[in-house]
């Protein structure tokens, strides 16, 4: 399984989601490929936001080696599943993907927790540390659900 997590800048939400999912997949012993990207290019090449790194580290997850990249059209072919962090991210993805965007592969991450509600992970860019903790909690719950559902389906 190849999974891509997508937000706007690829420095707050999606790198945290990438780090969290990598850890859960490692613990579950699954051979998945996980990556993240942003729909915008303002932060390309940068490490995750200091508070994203700090909050992940408090949970034993090191995301300091990740570097922001912009999503490309070819990501729609390569990945099996693409999770957008928010509805505005989904709209930007449509502009990048155009006819390559396979809607079967794309979903909002929080639809794993709240099916059909199209909720967004709040953008913590202008926020403070508590906002990054809330984002972490949401991402952690969604990634747990993803792995648990997969393991359950694989075993049945
Ligand atoms: P992210 O957060 O999409 O979770 O990485 C943002 C990071 C940067 C900006 C917006 C959101 N920005 O406007 O620079």
Automatic annotation (TrEMBL):
Keywords: Hydrolase, Protein phosphatase. SUPFAM superfamilies: Phosphotyrosine protein phosphatases I (SSF52788). The keyword Hydrolase applies. Signal peptide: none annotated. InterPro entries: LMW_PTPase, Ptyr_pPase, Ptyr_pPase_sf, Tyr_phospatase_low_mol_wt. Its EC number is 3.1.3.48. Residues 1-149 form the Phosphotyrosine protein phosphatase I domain. It comes from the Bacteria. Belongs to the low molecular weight phosphotyrosine protein phosphatase family. PANTHER family: LOW MOLECULAR WEIGHT PHOSPHOTYROSINE PROTEIN PHOSPHATASE, LOW MOLECULAR WEIGHT PROTEIN TYROSINE PHOSPHATASE. This is protein-tyrosine-phosphatase.
